[in-house]
Amino acid sequence: MSNRYRKNLLVCNGSSCQQASDADLVAFINFKLKEYNLEDGIKVVQSVCSNKCSIGPNIIVYPDNVEYSKVTKSDIDDIIIEHLLNERIVERLVFDKENGNGVAPIKQYRIALRNCGFIDPEEIKDYIEKDGYDALAKCLSKYTPEEVTQEVIKSGLRGRGGGGFPTGLKWEITSKSVSDQKYVVCNADEGDPGAFMDRSVLEGDPHSVLEAMAICGYCIGANKGIIYVRAEYPLAVKRLKIAINQAKEYGLLGKNIFGTGFEFTITIKYGAGAFICGEETALIHSMEGFLGEPTLKPPFPSVSGYLKKPTNVNNVETFANIPAIINKGADWYASIGTEKSKGTKVFALAGKINNVGLIEVPMGITLREIIYDIGGGIVNGKKFKAVQTGGPSGGCLTEKHLDLPIDFDSLTAAGSMMGSGGMIVMDEDDCMVSMARFYLEFIVEESCGKCAPCRIGNKRLHEMLTKLCDGKGTMEDLDLLRNLSVVVKDTSLCGLGQTSPNPILSTMANFYDEYYAHVAEHRCPSGQCKSFMLYYISEENCIGCLVCARKCPVGAISGEKKKLHIINQELCTKCGVCMEKCKFHAVHLN
Amino acid sequence: MMTICESNVAKIEAICKEYNCDKGELINVLHQTQNTFGYLPEDVQEIIAENLQTSLAQVYGVVSFYSFFTMIPKGKHPVNICKGTACYVRGAEKIIDEFKTLLDINIGETTADEKFSLSSLRCIGACGLAPVVLIGDKVYGRVTLDSVKEILDEYQ
Amino acid sequence: MWSLYGKMQVSCSSLKLILYYNFMDTISIKIDNKNFQVEKGTTILDAAKSVGINIPTLCYMHLHDLNTTHNPTGCRICVVEVVGRKNLALACATECLPGMEIKNQTIRVLNSRKTILELILSDHPTDCLICAKNGDCDLQSMAQQMGIREIHYKGEQSHYIKDTSPAIKRDMDKCIGCRRCLTMCNDVQTVGALSAINRGFMSVVAPAFQMNLEDSVCTYCGQCVAVCPTAALTEVDHTNLVIRALADPTKTVVVQTAPAVRVALGEEFGYEPGTIVTGKMTAALKDMGFDYVFDTDFAADLTIMEEATELLDRLTRYINGDTTVKLPLLTSCCPACVNFFEHQFPEMKDIPSTARSPQQMFGAIAKTYFADKLGIKRENMVVVSIMPCLAKKYECSRDEFKTNGNPDVDYVLSTRELSRLIKQASIDFDSLIPLEFDHPMGESSGAGVIFGTTGGVIEAAVRTAYETFTKQKLDKVDFKQLRGMDWIRESTIDFNGTPIKIGIAHGLGNARKLLQEIREGKSQYHAIEIMACPGGCIGGGGQPLHHGDSNILLARQKALYAADKAKVIRKSHENPSIQKLYTEFLERPMSEKAHQLLHTHYFDRSTHVEITKD
């Protein structure tokens, strides 16, 4: 936090808040501050994601630590006059911690997100004030590359992109590959639907990633770094570019860093909308200008990667942890978390949960703590059913897993995976069969198509699930579904195919009754699958107003004025418009 | 035979030069070219292939693989509907259907008057506002079936 | 007692040590509970093969001597269980490690293979009975081997527009995504006509914009067809057209057979590679009702007459200081090479000899000189070629080789098609009594025979050019320095004091290297020969499949040189029928008539885009 100003206004400038805002709040506030002659004493900081996306835009006033939510242009005058000039809190805008909609700060521990929301990401000085680039300086001046690598190994940090491979070990392997040129690659092709932790780090604290990449370069003997970032993240790209330029200006990137002779430069490459490019070999092919198709490992990128040179690929969140580990020591880091999963993990909490947003929690926290203590429980007080972790490659965890301490290994053992950290919460209204179908649809769209089990197998899995949802499934289909899921998992080329049947296998394991109901009882227990629905109009309530008939998009409702209307079930597409539009509650759902 | 005018060729050549005509930079070149032209028609791809000394089949292969690239010109107001999980759980499918019905086009198509084009996209990370619709750069959060028409009316 | 035990232990461990030293280059592995010693550094697939265990593969292709291993690891059929690994391992791409325990027969492995195969079949048409590759399809044999009786996983099938070019048919509904064609087109031949496009279920191999091959940079070399495991890529079938022509009493059907066909056709009938079956082939063609069975080698001699004259003309002018002369002269017999430089090196389109290929010279002479002799109209003559090549099908359809819309060569059958035709005609190839070619276009020199191998055309040209240039008799006609299988070869031939520098390349990837060197001025040659297919025409896209085994190619090559040696006449200009043709009809090489009938010109086909003013 900058101490040069009397007060700091942290305006959340994460994509969510920007998108929720009715104007460019930062520019507007600056304009207003000038009006009140306050621009010298008050600094407006564009910060990132204070994790209360559902109640944005959010503004935090420091050092008072007062959080205002759902701020619009018209609220700015109040904040300035009341709070900044008269030190009176504008109660009506205050974020209500008890009943609020943001994720609660309790039980959280910020390492990767340590600076997000607390510094101006477009201002390198802010980062430096927060001990930024200290870690790099320390590494370059005091330690040998081997010593730094050992420190990372000792910290127990594991890759945050999904695989959970020990980061230090990866560095060590790459450092041992002999080559005239090596590369450090930052994988910022965050693609899991519902996961946006990497974006938040890039938007909120880009320098931590740059610093970590340089440290990695020092360890493995690389002088070139490349960030592969999704083109769908324009703000992250913009801030990365600013950060790279500032770091160059300050001599923190480029030649002879800190006068040690160490050289490191960073460039940016863009993804182009292919989920598979999160897989490291596919990512490398994409960076080389090819289709993002994975290749078999070995050879691992650490031996033969970008342009066939040894390449160390780490994900954004992994890198964001590095400077903290170097600054505070491996022992400190290793003291957090569980035996085999050290440190913290950032999760993106979404779905049917009260508090949507990013959280960073120590490994080993239970699902119950996340969902109820931090997430504030299920929307509308409904019953918790499951949480999908690990995105489309993951599986679902149910009530019986609520007290499971979450780390890499426990999630895998429970049939899911850590993945990049998406957590989608589902309630009693969600049908697990159609949930599995949704994920398979995603996989079918995103499979690269190179290997047969993934290309055709996932297509067939999706078709079978659709058949189940359409009420046409047979018991034999359930057996085939399971067999095919196992084979696809067992034989696919890359991580995508090897995990794509997880949503099916884990829902079949935990909610077999729902599958059974779809096939044997011809019903969807949660009432979500349209084909089992039957809309009908009841005699006693229908007054024959014609509204439903007029609104029906397929003309399935017939009837004359003031007479009972009838739905033609052959034509009905079960869109539910009639039920929504009827003011007399005459349309019912079976 | 396709035709392309000189000044467009010059624009493409300039982009390729910016990346040292390195075929490894194909994706960056395609991004910038699409920014310039709005889409990547066949003639444009041919000029890129020539400049980067790579095969046209390779360029097309890349364009067809990545969903970000398009060979169809987008409408004046491109409508993008997020299909991330959070949006799905909160009813994005119904929203997509409503847009399809009102615009009378399918995903990936452009209306006859070239005003709107419809596409779905992967999670944009605004899960707190689900379901989310983007029109151009403007984001509409918590979209309901009723608000779809209102949103489109803003552009009429 | 204890001390003895101790000694035994010592000797045991030293024995182990000795064994270890003896087998430094081998490692021990276990396959299905049996111990094996296999070579270090090999894949599970190769290791298993070396001990007699065949693991099924589909996409995998090992072109030993093209230095090309194609293992895109896409079909996943060769999965095996490796004890201690979570997922199944790919035999074709997993290296054996000491002590590795491999299971090839478990239920898990067999079920996975069968399921994957069912998946592939679920997205594949089931018209096997009437498919061009019926009986010769890797997928079909695999289904048979695995005993597939039912496809459990049914669903949407992918459909693509069928594409028929003059030489190659693409039916991508039958593509199984093995990507072998991509390796041939992009890595070996560097043509770049094909790419993987789209993704997921719609992922397929196609030319740019899914245009027809005809509009792409495809050279029709046919190497993709030669490696396609199914009928996704096949040659355009001319057999029915030929049968129809044979059945038409108003038509005189003349057939020519290319040099490389006679040393490969036998393979389709169970003969060893390199068996020369010229006589049997002639007899079969006669049996099928061809009116005249001639030899393309005759036209090859004719080609040399024109090409060598052109070379000498350019050389002499060059030596006399004419700076406008284009050197090197590039041989122009290979139609795929012509397509290649028309698309990729258009600025060099004036270096190839203007002499037409032997096939086209044959057609032009047959439909003029020979038709006149027979006293029939060209419309009533049908010229059929038997070629090792698919590009020849395209070549004969080029407009330059037509007179009033009537082509000089009507139909081209590949070696494979000829074998099918022979089988279709119920001819017992084994019992055929060899016959001679007909006259006059059946007579050839040894120089004409070696046209079928890399280095052969240029050697034939040198034999004639030497004598014409030096006005001296050439005693040693075997130019061993021009022979061999090295991809790019160069040699200097002493033309009695004048060193003539010659370059040779086969395989379009190597041709590209050679042409690039010339374009950049790095190499100075007087003459170069390039052939599109590895090994030259003996490895052509229409030949019996050699699966990249250079032993087969070498056997075919050896047979051609043997046939050359067996000839009395070894130089083209000494062929009496050729001499007669010039006296009776063409006057002399490069005469006006020769120009009209035997020479051609080339086009710039490099771009599809026309750049207009603003």
Automatic annotation (TrEMBL), chain A:
Residues 533-562, 563-590 form the 4Fe-4S ferredoxin-type domain. CDD domains: TRX_Fd_family. Pfam families: Complex1_51K, Fer4, NADH_4Fe-4S. GO terms for molecular function: 4 iron, 4 sulfur cluster binding; FMN binding; metal ion binding; NADH dehydrogenase (ubiquinone) activity. Keywords: 4Fe-4S, Iron, Iron-sulfur, Metal-binding. SUPFAM superfamilies: 4Fe-4S ferredoxins, Nqo1 FMN-binding domain-like, Nqo1 middle domain-like, Nqo1C-terminal domain-like, Thioredoxin-like. Belongs to the complex I 51 kDa subunit family. This is NADH-quinone oxidoreductase subunit NuoF. It comes from Flavobacterium franklandianum.
From TrEMBL, chain B:
[2Fe-2S] cluster binds at residues 82, 87, 123, 127. Signal peptide: none annotated. Keywords: 2Fe-2S, Iron, Iron-sulfur, Metal-binding. Binds 1 [2Fe-2S] cluster. Pfam families: 2Fe-2S_thioredx. GO terms for molecular function: 2 iron, 2 sulfur cluster binding; metal ion binding; oxidoreductase activity. Its cofactor is [2Fe-2S] cluster. The keyword Metal-binding applies. Belongs to the complex I 24 kDa subunit family. This is NAD(P)H-dependent oxidoreductase subunit E. It comes from Flavobacterium franklandianum.
